[in-house]
Amino acid sequence: MTSKLLKSLSCLFALSLVGCGGGEVYTAPAKDEFAHGDELLSAAALTEDASHSLLATESKVCVWDNQLKARLYDCITGQGAEHIELAGFSANKSRFYISNRLSVTLFDTRTGRSIGSWLTGQEIARDIAISASGDTLVIAYRSGKAEVINTRTGDTKCFDIHRLDINSVALSADGLWAFTGSSDKYVKLWSTSDGSTRFEQRLATRVNRVTLNKAGTLGFAIDSVDDRIFFDLANKKELAEVASYSNFIEFTASQFINQDKWLLTGSPKMKMRLYRVADGELIAEYEAKQQRQRTSVLSVAYDGTQLYSETSDGLLQAWPFEPKSSK
C-alpha cells in the first residue's frame, strides 16, 4: 500500500474540522458582504486587495469600486464584451483583460477604455495571465502553444510549450517567467523571452491548475485526481503536498498570500480554503452563501487583514482569519 494511500485513509477518519496533520481548521461566518447585482456571472476577478471587482455576464462587463460600492463607469458592452469566460486585473490595478477565448481585449481600469485587442486566430484560449504592470500577457492555448504579448509595443511571440492542452498559466510579477500545467501531465516553468524551460515535473494525471508567486520561485499544481504539490522552483524540487483525503478537488481560483506562507483557493462548490505552504496543511475553510443551485467561488483575495471571495452570483464576502495555526 502506497504512502499516499495510507495518508488518505488516515485522513478519512479525521474529524471534519481537524486537518490531516492534526491541526485545527479555522472556520467562521462572513464578517461582511456586498451584492453586486442579481445576474449570474460567466467570469469574475478581484484585485489582489479586493478593492475592485471585475464582473462579466453574457452581455456586459462591469468594474466596481468595492470601497465606494459603486461602478467606476458604465458597464462595457460590445468591444468583445459578450460571452466572456476569462478575466483578470494586473497586480497594480492599472489594467484588466477580458476574453471569450477567441479574442482578448485589454482595458485601462481607470477609464474603461480599450488599450488593445488580439485575436487568437485558429487557436482556442484555455487560460490567460497578466504581469503586475499589465505590460505582458500570456495566452495559453488548447494546442499546447503559448503566446506572449507585449501590450505596449504589440509585439508577440509564440512558443510550443506542451504536447497537449495548456489548462492553466500563471505569470511572475515581472512577466519574465510563466508556469503552465497541461493535459500532457507536465508542469513547466519557462522563459517568456525565448520559451526555454527552467523546470518541469510530471504529475500523475492531467494538470488542471497552477499558481506562481510574484518572484517566480514558488509554484503550486493540482492534477485531475490527487496530486496537489508545492514546488520550490528556485531549487527545482518538491516542497510539500496538500494534506487531504479527497480525490478530484477542483480549484477555480488560487493565489499565494502573506509573503508566500499561505495558498488561498476558491472552488466550484462554494468553498474557500487556506493552506499552509510549508507542510500543505489545511488551516482555514469557509463556505460562501448559496443563492443558486450551483454557486462557485470565482475569485479570491487578501488585503493583509481579511480574506475575500467573489462568487458566480456576484456576491463579495469578507472573512476573518485569526487562528494560531497561521503562524
TrEMBL record:
<dbReference type="InterPro" id="IPR015943">
    <property type="entry name" value="WD40/YVTN_repeat-like_dom_sf"/>
</dbReference>
<keyword id="KW-0853">WD repeat</keyword>
<protein>
    <recommendedName>
        <fullName>WD40 repeat domain-containing protein</fullName>
    </recommendedName>
</protein>
<dbReference type="InterPro" id="IPR011047">
    <property type="entry name" value="Quinoprotein_ADH-like_sf"/>
</dbReference>
<dbReference type="InterPro" id="IPR001680">
    <property type="entry name" value="WD40_rpt"/>
</dbReference>
<dbReference type="Pfam" id="PF00400">
    <property type="entry name" value="WD40"/>
</dbReference>
<feature type="repeat" description="WD">
    <location>
        <begin position="159"/>
        <end position="200"/>
    </location>
</feature>
